Each structure stands twice: as structure tokens, then as C-alpha cells.
Amino acid sequence: MAEETPEQTIEKLKGESEYYRNKFIEFKTKFIDLERSTLRYKITTKIDAVMSFLVVMLSAEEGMSFSKRMMSFISTLYMWAKRGFKLEDEQTAKARLAICNACPEIRKPNYQCSICGCLMKNKTKISGASCPLKKW
Ligand code: SF4
């Protein structure tokens, strides 16, 4: 087998370095996209949680007393604060919401649970939150 010339070695190394450079760029782009979407998710979820407070305060679905809604909201908020306002990952939140979506206790279009009075589009994203009927 003929030995590799220095020029061939240089060409080979150039090809390899180009390959790893492209891989690095690809990885960096994916990482930045992930960071952006995670940040967007966190910011919008926290804004949603504050907005939900107002909606829970103002909305009065039939059969839900104001005090019951407030107690549920405050206990969830307290538990969430104890966990450092951590959010569940999107997959978990989606899985929880799918359960609520099929539940007879959900009141649309607000996605408000008639048992706890919480807005499930938000509550399902909160770390440590739970269904009052223990469905999730
Ligand atoms: S939190 Fe539980 S009870 Fe309420 S809508 Fe979701 S699954 Fe139903």
C-alpha cells in the first residue's frame, strides 16, 4: 500500500476539521433554539400564572364559590413558591392537560376545573401541582 503524501494528509485533516466544524455549528444552533424555546416557555408560563390569578378572581363558573377558588389558588401558589416556582417540562404539562381535557369536570373555553377552580392550562405546568381527584 502506497504511503500517504504530506499533501494528502493535509487534505484529509482539512476535510475532518470541516466536518467537526459543521457538527459544532449544528449543535450550537440546536442548543440556542432549545434555550430560546425554554426561556419563552418559562416567561409566558409565569405571565400566564399571574393572569390566571385575575381570571380565577373574576370568573365565576357555576357551583364554584369564591372562597373555594381562592383557597385552591393560594394553596397551589404556596406549594409552587416552596418549590422555587419551578415548571414542569412541556411533555408532562401536555400529558396532564390531555387528562383534564377528557375529564367531565373541565369547563371550557377557560379550561377551568370545576373541582378546584384552577385554570388547567396554567396549573398543569406548575411543578408539584396535582389534580384534586388524583387523576394526575
Ligand atoms: S384537575 Fe382533575 S378534576 Fe380537575 S379537570 Fe383536571 S383531571 Fe378533572
Report what the structure shows.
It is a single chain. With 136 residues, this protein is mostly helical. It has one domain. It contains four helices and two strands. It has helices at residues 6-58, 66-82, 90-101, 120-123, and strands at residues 106-107, 112-113. It has a two-stranded antiparallel ribbon with strand order 1-2. The longest helix has 53 residues, at 6-58. It is rod-shaped and about 85 Å long. The model has no long low-confidence stretch (mean pLDDT 81). The structure holds iron/sulfur cluster. Iron/sulfur cluster binds at residues 99-100, 103, 105-106, 113, 115, 120, 131-133, 135.
Helices and strands in order, then pairings?
Layout: H1 6-58, H2 66-82, H3 90-101, E1 106-107, E2 112-113, H4 120-123
Antiparallel strand pairs: 1-2
The protein binds iron/sulfur cluster.
Iron/sulfur cluster (SF4) binds at residues 99-100, 103, 105-106, 113, 115, 120, 131-133, 135.
Q: What small molecules does this complex bind? A: iron/sulfur cluster
Helix content: 55-70%
Number of helices: 4
Largest sheet: 2 strands, antiparallel
State the end-to-end CA separation.
66 Å
Which segments are poorly predicted (pLDDT under 50) over 5 or more consecutive residues? none
Task: Look at the structure and give the mean pLDDT.
Answer: 81
What is the tally of beta strands? 2
Strand content: under 5%
Into how many domains do the coordinates divide? 1
**Element order: H for helix, E for strand:** HHHEEH
Strand order of the largest sheet: 1-2
Going by helix content, strand content and strand pairing, the class is mainly alpha
Query: What gross morphology would you assign?
Result: rod-shaped
| Rg over C-alpha atoms, rounded to the nearest angstrom | 25 Å
